[in-house]
Every structure is written in C-alpha cells, then in structure tokens.
C-alpha cells in the first residue's frame, strides 16, 4: 500500500497500536500528539521504523485550526496522499457537576469535539477531490449515554458522534467511508494499569480491551467493500455489561 495514515491522538496504547497496524499494512503512519509529547511520539515512530515500517511524528495541538491545516498540507506535500485519518483523542474527565468549571467543560469539548471537527474537515478537503479515503472517529460509552460525573465528557463525545454521522451521510456518496467506533470498557493502557489494582487478573481473564485488537478492527473498517460499509462499530470485552 502507499499513502498516509494520519493518527490524531497517537498515545501509548490505542493510538500507538493503530499507527503500528496501518504501518504494517504499508502506509506511512503519521502520528500526531501535542508538542509536549513529541519525545514519546518520536519513540513510537522509531519503533515502527525499527520493524520495517514507515512513520513520522508531528507535534501539533489538534485544537488549533492553523496548526491542523498546516499538518494536513505538510503530510500531503511531503509524504503522500492521506488515505486514512483516525481521530483518537480521549479527554476523559470525571467530575461532579458542581465541580465542573467552565474552563474544564470548554477544554474537554475543544479536545474531544472541536478538534475532531478540524481533523474531519481537513481530511475531507484532501479526500474529496480523489473520491476515496477512510475517516474513523474513536468514541466511548459516553458517546451514547451520559453517566454520573461525565457531563463534560459525554457532551463532547455526543457532539463527536453527531459529527461522524453528518460526515458519513455527506461523504459516503463521494466514496469516503466515515466510521464511528464505540469503545465500551477499560482499555489495557498505562492509565488503567495505574488505576486498577487487579489489572493483571483482569487481563488474564480477557476483561480489558486489547489495543491491538481495537487496531485490527480499525484496519478491517478501512478494507470493507463499499457494498457493506459499517458506520458504527461497538467494541467491548466479553464481560462488559451494557
């Protein structure tokens, strides 16, 4: 394969696994995270290159319109046509409503919703003239259900899901596949390993979402024939209640 896979929110778990998976398919993995995480991004990109893949690290604030426009222009000019764009920023925050400040609510919305709009719009601008491409937005349980303490997170994730639906209806007829993945459950990640004391037992029982399995599902979405495109895909461990 040739072309670029742009992964916005390429962190230590899911985002990194998605980047490695698309690099394994032959795409240039363009991993993107805020500039303060550039060292970790470079390590991720180098790890992909060490295994024979192609990868490039970009320190970009996804909430900044000028930076996002420049990112997509640079990838197209220097690396290749963007065939896949994955928006994977989480911004998970749990706070009682009376403790949720306007600053917190606005920041979560900017990270999980507004940045998704910028990423989706810029991807569309590149893909529409070629009439091909895949756009995947990572959702969460909060995308469909507002839980206790998740006013800010659920508001942002609901908005991201609505964006994905609108884009799918607009871009599907232009041969661009837009999908929304509902990730329902705890992901085996550094954050969860610090949060849960029994994480080893949960992993042994397959009760955690495996980032590599999530990535494999995303690759499968990209390869779907347009005669049977999935728009919304929900992924959860077998033991997760829903």
Describe this structure in words.
With about 240 residues, the chain is of the alpha/beta class. Helix content is about 45%, strand content about 20%. α1 crosses α8, α3 runs parallel beside α4 and α4 runs parallel beside α5. The chain is globular, with a radius of gyration of 17 Å. The N and C termini lie far apart (about 40 Å). The model has no long low-confidence stretch (mean pLDDT about 95).
Mean pLDDT equals: 95
Shape: globular
Helix and strand content put the structural class at alpha/beta
Total strands: the figure is: 7
Individual helix count: 8
Report the uncertain regions: none
Range of helix content: 40-55%
For the largest beta-sheet, the strand count, sense and barrel status come to: 7 strands, parallel
**Distance N to C terminus:** 38 Å
Tell me the strand order in the biggest sheet. Answer: 3-2-1-4-5-6-7
Give the percentage of residues in beta strands: 15-25%
Topology at a glance:
Elements: E1 4-8, H1 14-24, E2 28-33, H2 38-50, E3 54-59, H3 65-78, E4 82-87, H4 102-127, E5 133-140, H5 151-171, E6 176-183, H6 190-195, H7 199-204, H8 211-223, E7 232-235
Parallel strand pairs: 1-2, 1-4, 2-3, 4-5, 5-6, 6-7
């Amino acid at each position: 394969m040739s072309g670029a896979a742009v992964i916005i929110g390429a962190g230590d778990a899911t985002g990194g696994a998605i980047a490695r998976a698309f690099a394994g398919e032959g795409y240039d993995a363009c991993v993107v995270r805020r500039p303060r995480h550039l060292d970790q991004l470079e390590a991720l990109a180098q790890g992909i290159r060490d295994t024979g893949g192609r990868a490039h690290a970009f320190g970009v604030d996804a909430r900044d319109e000028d930076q996002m426009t420049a990112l997509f222009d640079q990838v197209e000019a220097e690396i290749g046509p963007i065939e896949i764009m994955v928006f994977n920023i989480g911004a998970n925050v749990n706070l009682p409503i009376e403790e949720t400040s306007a600053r917190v609510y606005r920041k979560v919305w900017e990270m999980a919703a507004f940045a998704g709009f910028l990423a989706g719009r810029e991807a569309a601008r590149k893909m529409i003239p070629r009439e091909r491409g895949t756009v995947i937005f990572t959702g969460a349980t909060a995308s469909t259900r507002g839980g206790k303490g998740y006013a800010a997170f659920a508001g942002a994730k609901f908005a991201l899901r609505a964006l994905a639906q609108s884009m799918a209806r607009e871009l599907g007829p232009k041969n661009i596949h837009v999908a929304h993945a509902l990730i329902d459950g705890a992901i085996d990640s550094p954050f969860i390993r610090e949060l849960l004391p029994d994480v080893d037992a949960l992993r042994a029982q397959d009760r955690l979402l495996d980032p590599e399995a999530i990535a494999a599902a995303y690759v499968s979405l990209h390869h779907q024939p347009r005669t049977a495109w999935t728009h919304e895909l929900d992924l959860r461990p077998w033991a997760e209640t829903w």
